[in-house]
Amino acid sequence: MAKRTFGIDFGTGTIKVYQKGDGIILLERCAVSITGKGKKTIAIGEKAYEMYEKAPPSIRVSMPLKRGVVSQLQDMLALWNFMGKKISGRKKLSRCQFYIAVPADITEVEKKAYSKIVSDSESKPQNVSLIDKPVADAYGLGLDVERSRGILVVNLGADTTEISVLSLGGLVTTRLIPYGGNDFDRAIQGYIRKKYNFIIGLKTAEQIKIRLVAINAEESQITVVGRDVLKGLPGEITVSTREIFPLVKDIFYTIASEVRSILEHTPPEISTEINRNGIYLTGGTSFVNGLDQFMANQVNVRVNTTSGAQKTVVSGIGYLAEHPKLAARYAVPLE
């Protein structure tokens, strides 16, 4: 039987899995619900996330990836074991090849933690290799990574933003900054509590973000439910685009400043190519309406977007899984 090959993007917000020959087969929230002293896994993905802020004390809901690194390895193992069974169905998920996309700007110890998610799991893999996310991102965009002399990718994720420059198939520089979509949620939650004396959950804040965070958009409103701090009772409030966007604009300015800084330190031959090709915006948080034009104005370089921004990394790692000789140029095998 032919060895099955998988490409995995362990995103802070969402885990995506690509199977060679079948495409993307799994896209789940990076969340796990555990109960009892035996730490039994009762739900993963969206079902586990639905329990967040609602579960009784006997159930712990964990998001085991933080700021681009594995913060809770045992929870991550439980999450992957559950997913492995979901992927395998009746067939045992063993003796497989795994390519895992990891942030480039983290330590070797932090990278090894990603490989341990699979190598220490019930999957019993035959091979586990790590590939830098910016490389997978560029391939997922359909770019000619091997020949291009200047690619700049800005991946805005849930907890981090990774800014990377590639040239002739190699990673020139990369920077991981601790800002992402989850920071928007926390800023919105804090603002509503301070201004309205009203408590909302992070999931409600996320819905406000999705509806109202826009750089160039008409005024819009959303009504949400929560708890009135003064009355101690459930209630509802209405918030608008005008009051929400200022909460997150500083993060956009910070990201733009980091992009400018990287460009200023990029060799002129490469930066000239980047100026010609434009900047590529990816990641689940890049959905913000008008962000591409805002970034272009701040950096003075054209910005390219894609409708599949959340899936570019897993699409790229999948492309490499389909082309093992090419993948071998980038893959770092687990020792």
Summarize the model shown.
This protein has helices at 45-51, 73-88, 108-119, 133-140, 181-196, 202-212, 241-264, 268-277, 291-299, 312-322, 324-327; strands spanning 5-10, 14-19, 23-29, 32-35, 40-44, 59-62, 65-66, 69-70, 97-102, 127-132, 151-156, 161-167, 170-177, 198-199, 221-228, 233-240, 279-282, 303-304, 332-333. It is of the alpha+beta class.
Give an account of the 3D structure.
A hairpin with a 4-residue loop joins strand 11 and strand 12 (161-167). With 335 residues, the protein is α+β, with helices and mostly antiparallel strands. It is flat, with a radius of gyration of 21 Å. It is 38% helix and 28% strand. The protein has 11 helices and 19 strands. A 6-stranded mixed beta sheet has the order 3-2-1-9-10-19, sandwiched between helices. Strands 13-12-11-17-18 form a 5-stranded mixed beta sheet, with helices on both faces. The protein has a 3-stranded antiparallel beta sheet with strand order 5-4-6.
CATH superfamily of the largest domain: ATPase, nucleotide binding domain
Would you identify the CATH architecture of the largest domain?
2-Layer Sandwich
The largest sheet, given as strand count, sense and whether it forms a barrel, is: 6 strands, mixed
- Tally of DSSP β-strands: 19
What pattern of helices and strands is seen along the backbone? EEEEEHEEEHEHEHEEEHEHEEHHEHEHHE
Shape: flat
